[in-house]
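Go through this:
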Amino acid sequence: MSIEEDDRQLRHECGVFGCIASDPWPTDLDVAQIISLGLLALQHRGQESAGIAMSEGDNHTHFNVKKGMGLVSNIFNDEATKNLKGNLGIGHTRYSTSAGSEEVNCQPFVVHSAHGALAVAHNGELFNAGRLRRMVLARGVGLSTHSDSELITQALCLNPPDIEIDGPDWPARIRHFMELTKLSYSIVIMEKDRIFGVRDPYGNRPLCIGKLMSLTEPNKEEGWVVSSESCGFLSMGAKYVRDVYPGEIVEFTKEGFHTVSVMGRPHNRPQAFCIFEYVYFARPDSIYEGQMVYSVRLRSGIVLARESFVEADIVSSVPESGTAAAHGFSMKSNIPFAEVLYKNRYVGRTFIQPNARLRRLGVAKKFGAIVENVAGKRLILIDDSIVRGTTMGPIIKLLRDAGAKEVHIRVASPPLKFTCNMGINIPTKAELIANKLTIEQLAKHIGADTLAYLSVEGLKEAVTEKMPNKNAVEVGHCTACLTGEYPEELTF
């Protein structure tokens, strides 16, 4: 199911975006509008608050900032973006994990240090936040929030390298921060006239680079963008260039971008890109690790059909993030795909409802059954994941009431059994249905004839099969929420 109607409370912490215009400055490029479009494309990653910080590039003491609670389109209307002048800027859209849903936690965080203003936007959750917080507090700095992002901002200001000549050495400060904590973050950082894009050494959270192209002069570059996902690039006239590498610090200026440094992982451990980005969080038109998310979801359905085939008349999906996997299942099984559920797009997200009964009623209001495709049919229904198990039961009842003869549930990911601790707000282990019921018990509980999950190895196969560098020794994915195997030991 798509994140908009999820009672499962699987929430990503946020999306980050940055844009810088090419020389000459002042630019004719509407940088604030581009950032607003970028955040709109990342809205699925966070629907709680949003913010933009802009710089003219010639004043190290002042940024133009606007932040607020709510959706990007409500905060950044035409009038708001017109007032955000600048040649470069960064933006953020947020769900809360480590800090609460309050305006004080809206990002980007802006601090005014002895060396000028600094703006920081962060995606992820620090594995050793408690220890880092104690270190910052011990240095005499008060923190106004419980946000990891404020903690990062203050740590950057507090920890200069041993020797700084002619002002702060921000790349050295960033490297020092990365030595203090290896997980989990993608960060965009803005000072007066440049932006840094930073990705943790494990590459757990995504970050990618795009080139803004002129709409009137072919092959003319007008600027650069850096984003949690590439899904909005085409809509703003940008071309995907590449991912920010794990451990890489990229500096963006009006002349272009270059790599400042790349920090390795301890003990030559493999990368640990979040595998659930492919399963659930990313938009299907995003590119990760050289491949489209849609293609990975399609292959997940192909592998799922190979692992858990069942005779049926129709393959379908719970709209919409299960649809690509359903098409893959249909291709492999030679069972035709047809829509069986219509989604009402004018009903609010079910996880906002205050109790289980109202959540269930919310699910019923969200979908209608396409009776002609359902009545008298044996159905295979594909979903991307099952977390609490409260959503699927009402959907199956809806299909039964519409005349479905059989309903077989196939899940295009393994069962969720563990919390994340790296930026995804997964319910506690006790709330996860896979820790309460066996597969057979869960099938009975939700009213399905059969239920089967994709295996962990099957998911890994789907993710790596078409990766351009799949045989490289450093390639790896974090499966902690599925297996309990974390990239590093959690410290407090």
